Amino acid sequence: MQTTIKKFLTKVSKKVGKAITDYEMIENHDKILIGISGGKDSLTLVDVLHQKQKVVPIDFELFTAWIDFGFNKDQQNINEIKKYIESLGLQFYYIKKTLPETDKKFSCFWCSWNRRKELFLLADKLSCNKVALGHNLDDIVVTFLMNLFYHGEISTMPPKLKMFNGEIVLIRPLIYVTAQETQKYVEYKNLPLVENNCPYYTSDEKFQRRKYLTDLVNQLEKFWPNIKINIFKSLKRVKTEYLV
């Protein structure tokens, strides 16, 4: 059993390493701020990057931050995350703020936009040149389908995105790792997960659309095991001569 677990953890680590190499996500002397949500993806990201930090021939620093808009009601959850992060020797920043009001209908997009804004502000304060988010391969695929079906465009989350004229670079090192793999990763390593307590999460229209497409792809995967990989690969094999 231990051999199986070790092979799996190594497999995930290699996928992250390949993504970092393929898209040149991390360079010497980088200062990287990792956005923490308490979920399986962000904790997998922290753990793997911390392991990479000890073995790769690149000198880079890691910082972590949890932006809380008041949805987390259990202080014990925060303490467990803080304890885990600090056990790795990393700095943990916990920012609790009130989510700004909006005249538009409240949505997950509004929350994530403001959370990211806080991350960028903290990154600037800490002189971090990169911000790492825990989006996985499933997120890339479903976002592509969301944009295709509901917005009539071909686009998704890029693995690496320069922002603010290149002052900060957004990176997603988990793009080759599936949601199922991050779930197994946190279970095998017994990482302290925090349940999503957002009261708007399941009622948001975009969340419902995303959930529908996620469930659809997972159902199709039972018949075509490579469907997620194939959709992902298609984004790098665009034959423009056969488009309108």
Would you summarize the structure shown here?
Helices cover 49% and strands 13% of the residues. It is of the alpha/beta class and 244 residues long.
Description:
The chain is an alpha/beta fold and 244 residues long. It has a single domain, classed as 3-Layer(aba) Sandwich (Rossmann fold). The protein is 49% helix and 13% strand. The chain contains eight helices and six strands, in the order αβαβαβαβαββααα. The chain has helices at residues 2-22, 40-55, 75-87, 108-125, 137-150, 179-189, 205-223, 227-234; strands at 31-36, 61-68, 91-96, 130-132, 160-163, 168-171. The chain has a six-stranded mixed beta sheet, with helices on both faces. α2 (40-55) crosses α6. The radius of gyration is 18 Å and the shape is globular.
CATH topology, what is it called?
Rossmann fold
Helical stretch count? 8
Mean pLDDT: 91
N-to-C order of helices and strands: HEHEHEHEHEEHHH
The CATH architecture can be named as 3-Layer(aba) Sandwich
Helix content: 40-55%
Give the percentage of residues in beta strands.
Answer: 5-15%
| CATH homology group | HUPs
Residue windows where pLDDT falls under 50 for at least 5 positions: none
CATH C-level category: Alpha Beta
What does the main sheet amount to?
Answer: 6 strands, mixed
